[in-house]
Amino acid sequence: MKIGIIGSGNIGGTLTRRLSALGHDVSVANSRGPESLRDLAAETGATPVEVSEAANGAELVVVTIPEGKVPALPAGLFDGAADGFVVVDTGNYYPQRDGRIAGIEDEGLTESGWVAQQLGQPVVKAFNNIMAQHLLENGVPAGTPGRIALPVAGDDQQAKEKVSRLIDELGFDAVDTGTLADSWRQQPGSPVYVADADADGVRKLLAEATPDRQDAFKG
User: Fold this and answer.
1) Given its phi and psi angles, is residue 84 left (phi above 0), alpha (psi -120 to 50 degrees) or beta?
2) What is the C-alpha separation between 89 and 7, in angstroms, rounded?
3) HEC profile for 52-106?
4) What is the C-alpha separation between 206 and 190, in angstroms, rounded?
5) Sheet containing 149-153: which strands, arranged edge to edge?
6) What is residue 32's predicted lDDT score, i.e. its pLDDT?
7) What is the pLDDT at residue 215?
8) Largest CB tally within 10 Å, which of 65, 165, 174, 212?
9) Which residues in the chain land under pLDDT 70?
10) SS3 of 97-157
């Protein structure tokens, strides 16, 4: 699959490494430009590009940048994407880093619901509740006891299934969280956040979640 990754930090860099190793055609971009990605490209074989080019021809585009930076992404970012492309949002809202986001704090949007609004595109929320090192190192074959499961939320079932297949390739189970409006169940501070639970454990933790935002994650 042709995949564009916007962001080369902890999760973006890890996904670039893992997805390239699986044989996917990966383009990666960040705010500092392709030259800053020379080492990552040499290590992985991924193609460094400008942010405005990251989605060109991509069947799947991963947006993995600080939440507060999302509105600054280029207009027309997805104009060159492949038909039926899917956008994955891995982000989390941390007010201390991102500043206060009124749509989340006051209007009650889920974090990825707000991201979808900013992008003007439906998104699938995934990869937001696992530490990058664990995403890099802890994938195991399907059927392995205790295999870590990752929650996946979104409004398009086919898009979620595409992301879930990718999660399986990476060595994790995928658990359908529901719609994007339900994705508060996997936001920071929820029981499933960085829990590294198996599929049954993830379902149990999702069921225990409450929509109230913890004080530590309020702006």
Assistant:
1) left
2) 11
3) HHCCCCCCEEEECCCHHHHHHCCCCCCCCCCCCCEEEECCCCCHHHHCCCHHHHC
4) 8
5) 47-48, 25-29, 2-6, 60-63, 86-89, 124-125, 149-153, 173-178
6) 97
7) 84
8) 65
9) none
10) HHCCCHHHHCCCCCHHHHHHHHHCCCCEECCCCCCHHHHHHCCCCCCCCCCCEEEEECCCH
What CA–CA distances, in Å, run from 53 to 57, 191, 210?
A: 9, 37, 39
Token couple for 112: 């990825």
Instruction: For 144-191, write each residue's pLDDT tens digit.
Output: 999 999 999 999 999 999 999 999 999 999 999 999 999 999 999 999
d(CA 105, CA 73): 22
Which residue, 104, 89, 110, is CA-closest to 184?
Answer: 110
pTM reported for the whole predicted model: 0.97
Task: Look up residue 20 and give its two tokens.
Answer: 């390239």
d(CA 23, CA 79): 25
Q: How many residues does the chain have?
A: 219
Which residues have a Cβ under 8 Å from the Cβ of 193 and sit 6 or more positions away? 129, 186, 187
